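How a chain folds remains the central question behind the approach discussed here. For one protein, we set the task of working out the C-alpha cells from the amino acid sequence alone. The sequence in question and its C-alpha cells are set out directly beneath this paragraph.

_____
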Amino acid sequence: MGKVLTRQEEIYQVAARLFFTKGYHATSMRDIASSVGVEQAALYYYYRSKGEILYAIMKKSVLDLMESVDSALKNDGSVTGKLFSFLNAHMGFFLHRREEIGLGFELRNLNPEQQIELKQLQREYLERFRLILDQAIGEGVVRPCDTQIATMLLVATTNSVVVWYRPDGPRDADEIASIFADIAIRGLLQTPDVNAA
C-alpha cells in the first residue's frame, strides 16, 4: 500500500508533473488546483505563489539528491566503489525523480536570491564527485584528467535522460543507472575493470 500523501505533498507532486509536462509558464495555479481537486484559493494556504512551488520543488530535489548519494557512499571503502556508487545513485535519482529534477532548466524563473542559493547547493554537490575523482587520480586508479571538466561532462550527461527515459520502456531505472555507472567508470579507469576494486 502506497504512502498517503498530505495535501501539500499532493500539490507538490502534481505541480512537478505539470511543470515538467506542460512547462512552468504554460501551467497556471488553476491547472494545479484542478488536478489536485481543490479550489484555487486553497493552494495559497500551502504556497504563496506558483514561483514558491517551483522553488520548493527544485530545492527539495537537490537536497534529496545529495542525501541519496551520501547514503550510497556510506559503505564504500575503495575509491572505485565510491565512483560507482555516486554515479549509480546520481543516475538512479534522475530516473526515479525525473519530473522534479527535470525542472533544472526553470531556474531562471526563480528570484535572484533563490537562484544563488540553488546554484551554491549544486556546486557543493558537484564538488563531492570532483573530490572523489581527485582521490582516484591520486591513488592511480583513474587516468589523470581535468577533474572539473570530467565532473561537468559525466554528471551533466544525466540531464538529457529526463527527455528520453520512459518508465514503461524495456529497461527499468535501476538497470539503466547501473549501466551508466559501469560505462562511465570504464572510461575513467587506468585499467577498465570495474571489479578491480
Q: What stands out?
A: Residues 112-138 form the longest helix (27 residues). The chain has two domains: 1-48, 57-196.
